[in-house]
Amino acid sequence: MTWHGKVLIADLSANTVRTEPLNQAWADEYLGGRGLATRYLTEMMNPKADALSPENVLIFATGPMTGTMASTSGRYCVVTKGPLTNAIACSNSGGKFGAELKYAGYDLLICTGKAVKPVYLLIEDGNAQLMPADDLWGTTVWHTEEFLKEKHKDPQIKVASIGVAGEQGVKYACVVNDLHRAAGRSGVGAVMGSKHLKAVAVRGTVGVPCANPERVMAVTKETHQLLKDSDGRRELTEFGTNAMIDSMHAFGGLPTNNFLKMTFEGSKNINPEAMKTPNENGHTNLITNKACFGCTIACGRIAHIDKQHWSVRNRENYHHASGGLEYETAYAFGPVVGVDDIDALTFAGYLMNEHGMDPISFGVTLAAAMELYELGILTNEHTDGVPLNFGNAEALTIMAEKTGKQEGFGKELGLGSKLLCEKYGRPELAMVVKGQEFAGYDSRALQGMGLGYATSNRGACHLKHDVFAEDMADQSGDGKAVPCKNSQDQIAMIDSTGLCLFTTSAWDTDAFQRQIAAACGDDWTREKLLESGERTWNLERLFNLHAGLTAADDTLPPRLLETPAPEGVAKGKVCELDKMLPEYYSLRGWTDTGIPTQETLSRLSLNEHAV
Amino acid sequence: MKQLILDADKCTSCLQCELACSLEHEGLFAPAYSRIKVFEFEHGKRNIPYTCTQCDEAWCLHACPTNAIAINLELGTKYVIEDLCVGCKVCTLACPYGTINYNAKSGKVTKCNLCSGDPKCADACPTGAIVYADPQELTV
């Protein structure tokens, strides 16, 4: 068993911490991470509670594989109710924080209530205490991490924290750990801020026990080799996730100018080749690739901004190396806002990490603002004099900073696309599902992605299903419901292990099963794992239904459902959601209004959660 | 003689070496007890794996008042004889590289012994940043 069997509960209202035994019965049903945290969340809060009220519960969850030698074992999830979506939020992060939390002896950290004054939580092995954070409040993620390591005289402390964006309730504020890894989506950082919790600092030396090291190591060696031999893994190591940008441009599925276009000529200036090619000053954007904890892929990019670039010319504090462009950041600061200045994009990424914001939601919100500006609905009077035209790189970096610091028009951008577009009377321009902004795939070209976006429990998201192969092969909605549903269940399982989704080019469900069985016991069969994933998916759905969401929320903006694709492989097509959704509900064992039937609830032992 | 050849340019800071080391020597996954460490510099720009170099002139060995550090002539390693170590930490002061460390759990010091000739860190390294080889036999 690679669980510790311990949950740390920080009651912020009472300013106390306590340890409780892990509910092993729940762990046997939900494994860990995303699933187990969802089970705790449903038990501990009313889904109707306001996401930014003290009633919300914020859970940091490791999985049974977190901190083991399985490749990519550094993952943890932040599960809570998201202010961006008013639905369940489940944001996954890598880096080294998750493993450190596990090494401190805890499977889960649950934060309830709201501190009277700003605090941070210090965890050192079995000891945890809430400490005053008045002098950290109002400062950046980067300052907070450095400050805490210095204060506690331990460079090995791992920190997850929020910036001003999280403190001031930016709807898509994230939790950043290890300077540039983040539990990025749905506004989990704003929940942390609403609780007056600035940071969690953790040092763990307890480790993770391994009951059967010989067997664990045999499986680990075998699965390491699978990854090593995989072409998908090789591409991630060599190019990072941004390898996708060229293929999406060529395919015609790359959302450009707030989804008005589906190709972006500027892609060549921000693609992996551009990252590796010296510019006219002899500066090369990419420095190296970097792994999260335990990861033998190392898709992360470490980059630096050209010191002579206008964005940072006199700002030496941005001349150091830090997290570089990945596909979603390249998309969100690139095509969707029409910008192709690689240094401006990299700088915007730095600002997201420094101030703690989700790049996808920020970029798509800015794209909506740019469309409103080009329509004449927003003017320079609204935008602090900054012309928000598509393609304006300066607007990108200025607005990223204003939003991070919550100054001027940045306050409006902090609302997210949905509220911003509603405020200016054009709700249809918000490229969102359930209030959350789209990732870098247009669902007129990738139909299965459209179904996945519409049905994702946390709003538009590219990471909760995997229908890529089917979508690339065929541009209709036919046959997409089955792989969408199956991959949603599989990924819910993977997110509950503590391992990373990016292993699936090499690992099938059986490969996960062999590792989990070796670590957690042979009762974790393939069937039990997939059922556990399906149970998690349904429990998330039930949380949302209890929160007040309905089938009407499983939809896409009119631009994708009614406006034919202007170009690319799917030219003339719209997303065939109306065809796919009924098939999907039926496959899920849900009614035609998207509610799990009694039979489905019984099959998954979810009766007590019925709507 | 074979030794650990560490190539910082290839290291991604995945810490598989630390995991393998702690499992081999402590029986659990706990990088805090690893004999090999990866240091990150400049926000991850440089990641440098580092462990005992098995010095010819091993100051830890000479400093030890209880003769608890011995030489394995076949492997060239200097290893800790746990039964003799009293945990006085003099060796940790003598080592110029800081690669022999006190373990508060056991009350004794720990250092790399090349896993008695089969170093698990090199085996676990996915990028070739840690290789166990005879430098003279490596083709350049």
Summary, kept brief:
The complex is a heterodimer of chains A (611) and B (140). By secondary structure, chain A is an alpha+beta fold.
Keywords:
heterodimer; A: 611 residues; alpha+beta; Aldehyde Ferredoxin Oxidoreductase Protein, subunit A, domain 3; six-stranded mixed sheet; 18 strands; B: 140 residues; Alpha-Beta Plaits; 4 helices; globular
What do these coordinates show?
The complex is a heterodimer of chains A (611) and B (140). Chain A has 611 residues and is α+β, with helices and mostly antiparallel strands. Helices cover 38% and strands 13% of the residues of chain A. Chain A is built from 24 helices and 18 strands. Chain A starts with 5 loop residues before the first strand and ends in an 8-residue tail after the last helix. Chain A has a domain at 443-609: Aldehyde Ferredoxin Oxidoreductase Protein, subunit A, domain 3 (Orthogonal Bundle). In chain A, α1 packs across α2, α17 crosses α19 and α19 crosses α21. Chain B has 2 domains: 1-51 and 118-130, Alpha-Beta Plaits; 53-111, Alpha-Beta Plaits, CATH 3.30.70.20. Chain B has helices spanning 16-26, 59-63, 90-94, 120-124, and strands at 3-6, 28-29, 37-41, 46-50, 69-72, 77-80, 101-103, 108-110, 130-133. In chain B, the strands form 4 sheets. Chain B has a two-stranded antiparallel ribbon with strand order 1-9. Chain B has a two-stranded antiparallel ribbon with strand order 3-4. Chain B is globular. The model of chain B has no long low-confidence stretch (mean pLDDT 95). The A-B interface holds A 67-69, 71, 96, 99, 103, 156, 179-180, 204-210, 213, 217, 224, 228, 287-296, 298, 302, 304, 320-322 and B 12-16, 19-20, 22-23, 26-33, 42-45, 47, 124, 126-127. β13 of chain A pairs antiparallel with β2 of chain B, so a sheet runs across the interface.
